[in-house]
Every structure is written in structure tokens, then in C-alpha cells.
């Protein structure tokens, strides 16, 4: 998953707490992952919030209609209005 995100130049992501923890480490912060639910790193939450365009969401399977990468579903979050 880390290689997929880096290879596709995905910079800002949301994921659950533990996936966020591992992805930030494995990508050496080349991908910034804000955690859903419990907040891990407030600075990451802020950076992701400041970059809504092209934001990607990572969720565990099962999923439909999304890109599957190993055990995860990768989907682009729709851009908010006026961005």
C-alpha cells in the first residue's frame, strides 16, 4: 500500500488510526496520513485538512467500485465545493 501511494504520487490520505500509523512510518512521511477516529498527530490532521483537493481515503475491505490494493480500498474523496 505504501508503494502504491508513493508510486501514484498520492500525498494526503485519511485512514483508520493503525493504518495511518504504519503508513506514515513506511512512507517516511512522503505520504501524510490523517487518522479517522482517534487523532494521532494534530499536525497531520491539519495538513490533510488544508489539502482537500485530491484527498484519498483508505479503508479495509470489503469494498465495491474502488481501487483495491492488497487488503485495502483506495478511493478519491470528492473535492469540496469552491476548491
Structure characterization notes:
The chain has 83 residues and is α/β, with parallel strands linked by helices. It is 29% helix and 28% strand. It has three helices and five strands; from the N terminus they run H-E-H-E-H-E-E-E. The chain has helices at 2-7, 17-26, 42-49; strands at residues 12-16, 32-36, 56-60, 67-69, 72-76. It has a five-stranded mixed β-sheet. Helix 2 (17-26) links the parallel strand 1 and strand 2 (32-36). The longest helix is centred in the first third of the chain and has 10 residues, at 17-26. The chain is globular and about 30 Å long.
Number of helices: 3
Q: Which whole number gives the mean pLDDT?
A: 91
Broad shape: globular
Please give the share of residues in helix. 25-40%
Strand order of the largest sheet: 2-1-3-5-4
Q: How much of the sequence is in beta strands?
A: 25-35%
> Which structural class do you get from the secondary structure elements?
alpha/beta
Ends: how far apart? Answer: 27 Å
What is the H-and-E element order?
HEHEHEEE
Low-confidence stretches: none
Number of strands: 5
Rg estimate, integer Å: 12 Å
The biggest sheet, with number of strands, parallel, antiparallel or mixed sense and barrel status, is: 5 strands, mixed
Quick rundown:
The chain has 83 residues and is an alpha/beta fold.
